[in-house]
Design goal:
Blueprint: H1 2-20, H2 25-34, H3 39-60, H4 73-92, H5 96-120, H6 132-148, H7 153-163, H8 168-190, H9 198-218, H10 224-244
């Protein structure tokens, strides 16, 4: 019962974080590992649990979705579907022991990307031009990474889309939609996996949806910088914990 309560609270927190700043998986992953799951099972269960909230967020901002210059949104959509599926297949075919060795590096990378996008990226960097071929290639690689792990995909997409000339407000909406799209491909593969812990996935998902709704209310009431600092601290602590955790 204590574990279920922790999972619910993690879902609420993750939903709130994803609505305000992103990085919800930095909370759900360690919570599910604490619940006794292997890193790969925790990653798969977390992806499935957080997916409904991503769909809701994406639908809410769909009117702001545009293309990236000469690259239409339909192409970005297709690249996200294919890339997410490839990432999901790659994860399902990665032995659990190998993924356990890889995941600390993935979390460290995602934390570094989040910290860079939150605190160190200069406004002028968003003005550098990324052509349609570069933008398409970037989205495809991000989608593969998203289907495989997913931490930090929001910051990666925001950077790529703004560098392709998409206004920040539109890039935020596109990021939410495309995150749901690439995870839809992965979730379609994961639902048949024996590694899914459905009780925790359902409980976590309900908490994440409630947290996302709360995030909408708190959007103008929470100090976003403090939240981003907390996310980076969680990611750093999780990285250290995973490196020290026996395989």
């Amino acid at each position: 019962m204590l574990i279920i309560v922790l999972v619910v609270l993690a879902g609420l927190w993750a939903g709130l974080q994803n609505s305000l700043a992103g990085g919800g998986s930095f909370v759900t992953l360690p919570t599910l590992i604490l619940a006794g799951m292997s890193p790969i099972a925790a990653n798969i269960t977390s992806t499935i649990a957080l997916f409904p909230g991503q769909v809701t967020t994406g639908l809410a901002g769909r009117r702001l979705v545009i293309g990236a210059g000469r690259l239409s949104f339909r192409v970005l959509f297709a690249l996200s579907v294919v890339g997410g599926a490839l990432g999901g297949l790659l994860l399902l075919n990665t032995p659990s022991a190998i993924f356990a060795r890889i995941v600390p590096w993935l979390v460290m990378f995602a934390t570094a990307v989040f910290a860079w996008g939150s605190f160190f990226r200069k406004p002028g960097e968003a003005q550098r031009h990324l052509g349609p071929l570069g933008a398409g290639a970037a989205q495809f690689m991000i989608a593969i990474y998203g289907g495989y792990f997913g931490g930090g995909i929001g910051i990666l997409m925001m950077a790529a889309l703004t560098m392709a000339g998409v206004p920040t407000r539109n890039a935020g909406a596109m990021k939410n939609v495309l995150a749901g799209v690439m995870n839809a491909s992965a979730v379609a593969l994961f639902v048949t996996s024996p590694l899914v812990h459905w009780r925790e996935a359902i409980v976590l998902g309900v908490g994440a949806i409630a947290g996302g709704l709360g995030g909408t209310w708190a959007l103008h009431r929470v100090n976003e910088r403090v939240l981003r600092v907390a996310i980076v601290c969680i990611g750093a602590a999780l990285t250290i914990g995973l490196f020290l955790r026996p395989i």
